[in-house]
C-alpha cells in the first residue's frame, strides 16, 4: 500500500483535470523517474494526445458556462480516470490492493470533481470574468504543484490534496444556495444556446 499516496493524489487531480493528470504523471515518470507511474503514461504518443486534450480543457475551463458544460460531460470521465490511475499504479495483479487503490482513486476523483464543478457553478453567477479566470488558474496551479510535489514527497502531496479536497467540499456546501443559482443560470444558458453568455 506504499502507492496509496500517489493513487489518492492522482484521484484528486483527476477530479480537476483528468487529461492534465495523466500528462503530468507521464512527464514525472519519464523525466523525473517517479516510481509507480504506469509505463503507458510515459509513451510519446500518450503524452502528445494528453497534452492536446489538457490544452482543450484548459481553454474550456476559462469560459463561464462552457466550463460547467465541460464539467457535466467530465462527470463520467474524471472518476473513471481516477479509478484507472489507481488500478494502474497498483499494478496488474488484480488482487485486493488493486481494487482498493482503484476505489481510492475513483472516489477521490468523484469528490474532487463534485467540489470543483459546484464551486464553478457558484462562481458563474458573478457578473465579471475575473473570478472565473482566477478560480480556473488556481485549480490548474494546484494540480501541477501537488503532482510535482508527489514526485519527491508523495505522502506530503496526498496530505495537501486531502486538505484541498476538504476545503473545496466545505466551501461548496457553504455556498450551496449560490451553487443552485448557478445551476439554474447554466440551464438557462443551455436553453438560449452556447453562443450567449
How would the blueprint of this fold be written?
Elements: H1 4-14, H2 18-31, H3 44-60, H4 66-90, H5 96-123, H6 129-152, H7 154-174, H8 176-192
Defining traits:
197 residues, mainly alpha, 8 helices
Q: Based on Cα principal axes, name the global outline.
A: globular
Oligomeric state of the chains in view? single chain
Largest beta-sheet details: none
Order of helices and strands: HHHHHHHH
Number of strands: 0
N/C terminus separation: 47 Å
**Radius of gyration from the alpha-carbon trace, in angstroms:** 17 Å
Q: Work out the count of structural domains.
A: 1
What is the share of helical residues?
Answer: over 70%
Strand content: under 5%
Low-confidence stretches: none
How many individual helices? 8
What's the rounded overall pLDDT mean?
90
Give the structural class. mainly alpha
Could you describe the 3D structure shown?
The chain is mainly α and 197 residues long. It has one domain. It has 8 helices and no strands. The protein has helices spanning 4-14, 18-31, 44-60, 66-90, 96-123, 129-152, 154-174, 176-192. The longest helix has 28 residues, at 96-123.
